[in-house]
Each structure stands twice: as C-alpha cells, then as structure tokens.
Amino acid sequence: IGSVAGTISTLGYKYILELLKKVRIHDTCGVHNLHGMPGVLSGLAGIVVASMPWRSYYHENLTDKCLSGGEHRTPGAQAGYQCAGLLLTLAMATVGGLVTGIVLRLPIFASPDNDSYFDDSLNWHVPQDFVAEDSALGSLIKNLLPNNIQLHEPPKQDANTIELVHENIPKQSMEAMARYSTQSATLPLSDLKNDRTQSTSLDESIQRL
C-alpha cells in the first residue's frame, strides 16, 4: 500500500498538478497529491480489509488486535460503513472547498498584491534584518541603498564620456587599430611593429582619461 501511495503521489505531481492548473484549481503546496490521493487509497484499502470475513486471512496472534465489525455487523456491512465514510469525507472536502473559495472571492477578503505573497512580516513577528528580497519592502530597500550594485546588470555607458574618448584619441591611432584588427595576418613585420606602437599609445590615452 505504501509503494502504491508513493507512486500515486509522484505521478500526481508530474501530471495531475498541471491539469489542476488548467482548470484554475490552485494547489500551491501539493496537498492533493501528498495527502489527498494517498488518503483515498487508504480508504479503499480499509474497505477491502473490513470485508475479509475469515480470520485465516490474518496472521497468528493478530486476530485480537484487528478491529471487529462492530455490534451485530457482518464483514460486508462493515465494508459498507467504510465506503460510506470515505464518500462522506470526499463530499465534505468538496463542499468545504467550494464554500471557502466563494467566501474568499468576496470584496472584504481581497487578496494581497503579488509583492506581499511571501512577506512573512505581515502575519508573523520576524527579526529586524529579515526581509524577503522579492517583497515590496525588499524592493524599496534595494532602491534606497545607493551601494547596492546589481552584478547581473551591464554597466551604464555615458554618452559624454564616449564622445570625450573619441575626441582625445588621435585619428592616426584609431586608423592603426582598425587596420591591425583586420589586416594583421597579411601585414609585413615592420608594419605590425608600427601598428603595435600606435596601439600602445591608444591604450595610454585611454588610461589617462
């Protein structure tokens, strides 16, 4: 039973969870697959076990530990009660979920914004330095801190700086740099030395800026 329950739970995470999303049934924590479906399996197993009428189905010294069918109940009647209990549980869960969904859609129970979903400070006492990076407060702190550098963002280029670099670089050095990058494989050795000297002066000009 445990192996089958684990298989059902795993397959539910793989396939049923995507199906629930398509019909707009939100199961953010996977409760349906982790507890719901294995619970239904255990209910079915209870029906089968309760319907076993012969004590020979149980091992030795286990008959006294097994639950009996109740007063004046046959094994078949007890299995029927087990089935009724399972159906009643499913009905209560379905009706309770529908009522909860209807109540939560009322305007007085408006859902929070997306930035506050995982902000624990709204409902619990948390340490002062505990701030969720994706929360609204975390985003505000990121914007207020001037030294908070985002490493994944490319550095911003200033147009004035680029123009200043072009103005201070000799035209001859720029031409040598372009010629060196495109024709270095075919130039004579003497020209390569001159181009490298001009490229060195180009690097020095940039460093002085």
Automatic annotation (TrEMBL):
A biological process term (GO) from this entry: ammonium homeostasis
Gene3D superfamilies reported for this sequence: Ammonium transporter AmtB like domains
Chain ranges of the Ammonium transporter AmtB-like domain: 1-108
Keyword Transmembrane helix: yes
InterPro entries (UniProt xref): Ammonium/urea_transptr, NH4_transpt_AmtB-like_dom
Gene Ontology MF terms in the entry: ammonium channel activity
A GO CC term attached to the entry: plasma membrane
Biased composition (Polar residues): 197-209
Membrane topology: Multi-pass membrane protein
Subcellular location: Membrane
Keywords on record: Membrane, Transmembrane, Transmembrane helix
Stretches for region Disordered: 187-209
Protein's UniProt keywords contain Signal: no
Designated name of the protein: Ammonium transporter AmtB-like domain-containing protein
Organism (species): Rotaria sordida
